[in-house]
Batch of 3 targets.
Target 1
Amino acid sequence: MMLRRASRVLHATRLFSRPDRVHFSTSSAFSIKPHLNFKYFKANSDRIVANIANRKCGGDVARVNDLYGQHVQLEQTVTQVRARRNAIAQTLGSRTEAGVDRDQLKEEAIQMKSKLAELERESRELEETLVREGLRLPNDTHPDVPVGDETKATVLRMAGEKRAFEFVAQDHLALGTRLNIIDFHSAAKTAGQKFYYLTGDGAMLELALTQWAMSRIFQKGYRPVVAPDMVHSAIVEGCGFQPRGEASQTYAIEGTELCLSATAEMALAGMFADTMMDVSRLPMRLVGYSHCFRRETGGMGSASKGLYRVHQFSKVEMFIVSPPDPALAESLHAEMLSIQEELFSSLGLHYRVLDMPTEDLGASAFRKYDVEAWMPGRKSYGEISSTSNCTDYQSRRLNIRCKGTLPQQQDPTAGAPAPRATTHVAHENRFVYTLNGTGCAVPRMIVAIMETFQNEDGSVTIPEPLRQYMGGKDKLLPIKP
């Protein structure tokens, strides 16, 4: 319903299932050339096949290897023909060559020029197909990641306690109605289903959560960024946002190559596209704020009602550009998770930390941790954040590199195996690692706070860290009849 109403402004498209939508090297207005490691793909075919099977995702490494072999052979032919053309040109340019049939050489030169042009065209077309197929391959997977669907997630730890209620706990929709702070009805008339208005204290709560999260993460050494809400489709693809089946999450802007951003991660990664960075500047820590837009195809069940799954929301996102050091990247991944836990613990939420299994990993993630808060009204845990180590997956697609002396690499036998970039790229001019993590996904946090800290009279106690951003208010009070 919503998409039909909004069709004159937006059209949702499956960006990654259509080969003609690859924009990396074909757009005259915007061009990024991916640097995929085809030699690595060829040398590790069996491992990649198993990885694709474990993730249950797209990608055909056998086809990639076949295309790569064809391209190598074609480039060798191109080199030979070009060399012959140059030799003919040199001979024709020399006046001292004796016994040379110049007319015959001129005819051969014409043939070589035509043949070379055709071979170069074939090479370009084959390379585009090769890159397109290579982009479908997922990142490697950390050896400790559990194999299977989301039910196989490993619970790493629990924090806090489930609140014991002396009354029947309500869900956030019932509470929001009594508090008069959430309005889905008016938003449905304005924009369609799964949009909402936050009003009064609801609006103030969103702003409080945003300011609180940005301030706390800034204090951890992250540089604040207000990110664009639209990004070029090449950036979306370079970040690895490929759909599973028909479930594209991205809105495309009709008549342009822009998309509405699904997460600030896209815009933050895009800041560094086609960039050579000095390794002395790394790791670079950013915390971005943006609106996020997602189709949320298939998310219409009762567990997704209300604010839990919506088409537009505000989010604070952490992003790190790291030297290509596996040990350092794992440390930074743990740092992000620690910040998330510190934020949620300070609010008094009960949550659990999960090491997510292979089938729940996005294409770019080498490893991903989720944090799920207990939501009493939903009578279940609900995801409120995730954090991913993407190694060099995004940087290769967005051409983000670093130069300079790199830190000492960890011996792979002493811990997790080194991802591909560490053994297949020269010491200088290497592809960086990228990591990302949710600081505060506002609607989900509102759900967790309202349902956890509700009172029998329908009011909601505001967690102490947020009160300074709410004008000192300590409760959300219901509207009197």
Target 2
Amino acid sequence: KQVVRVGWGAGFQGDRVQNAIKLITHGNLDYIVLECLAERTLADSIARARSGGKGYDTRLSEWFNALLPIAAKNNVKIITNMGAADVKGAGKEAAEIAKSLGLSDLKIAVIAETKPGLSEPNGAVGCTYLGADCIIEALAQGADVVIAGRVADPSMFVAPIAYSFGWDLIKDFHLIAQATLAGHLLECGCHVTGGYFAHPMGRDITFESLANQSLPFCDVSADGSVVIGKLKGSGGELSVRTCKQQLTYEIGDPTCYLTPDVSVDFSQVTFEEISPDAILAKGATATDRPSSLARIIARPAGVKAWVEVGYGGVGCVERARWANKLVHGWLEEQKPGIMKKTKSYLLGHNSLYLQEPNP
């Protein structure tokens, strides 16, 4: 196969299922990636597992009941990190859902660390950021659905692309760099198709266009060329400027963007508009990969609480400030020094820019 198409179906735990359904139905995809895990949601999953609840994504049933039938019908493979802190539990539920839908023949693979729950100091729980290699192995075994936990976001794209073309993760660094570029541009979903550009001042997207946004996909060729696309005729904006803005998202040093698969240099990346629905991305390079993997540690860090009191009408700002002073005095009287760990904001007045000074 000369071109593989990978779609982005979810960019966070609370994403909408409907957009992914549209992309699978109309996008002519080979794969779809559901990226539903972040550091906070992973910590939440660990906490749930510790208390006897589900350690994987609580919306797995909603997603899989909706997507498995149409993915099977359209021959689209699913890759997701919904396994969070309990990939085996996620795999078990996914298999039960597939069976209930008459899809018992679907091959479901789960990816877990060889030492799950590796002990950390003070009762903390750690999860390692895995790379594309484990997903490639699952695909090589014929998996239709791959469920992982904490896998680096771009690696979920690198895996199906590298697998499709037989690229070597150890040798084909420039090709892996381009696949990583594709994954990085798509990892926030609609951000690259105009979500960043919805501000009514200085933007030229109408509300109707924004409401008709498409999730993005990438077409990657065997030579490493990458085209970022959206559904033909959809709204939003996919352009050089949306790609440039997404490129800078959470990369740190642009000459050394680290993933488990490769150390990428994004500094020479360029974009070229092919059509209103397609952008050519090129210029990502690499010469090596990190010698170690990152690990996230979830540990007890105390309790955070918040309280809101509402005020409206004449003098509401001043009345709110008086209330803040009263609460400050009451808490200080009960536990001296506690207000040094407290922040106060007047929502709707200054909360986006600064906090209220301690009285």
Target 3
Amino acid sequence: CCTIDWFTQWPTEALLSVSNEFFADVDIGVTDEVKESLSVFCEVIHTSVSNMSDRFFAELRRNVYTTPTSYLELINLYLSMLNDKRKQLCASRDRVANVLRSFSRQMTWLPVWKLS
């Protein structure tokens, strides 16, 4: 019986290129410099997980594979979490705005109540 190792690592340049393409296509509300930093961060995370999986194999003889698909899932997870957090932030902002509007209306009625 033989096995074929289909899990070859992508070079650093390829990882950066893929993440740059993902972040370039999506409006995440940041500058190009920040997008570049996010790309480098994703590459560092993927590479460090690969290194730790090698260490895990050396110590426990158990394989953990980091594949190109797992890298794409990392980027998609980041974008998904960013979208969720934006929705939460917008909902919180709207709640605060409603409270401030209500408070403002009550403050305009306060002099009328004092005169009564």
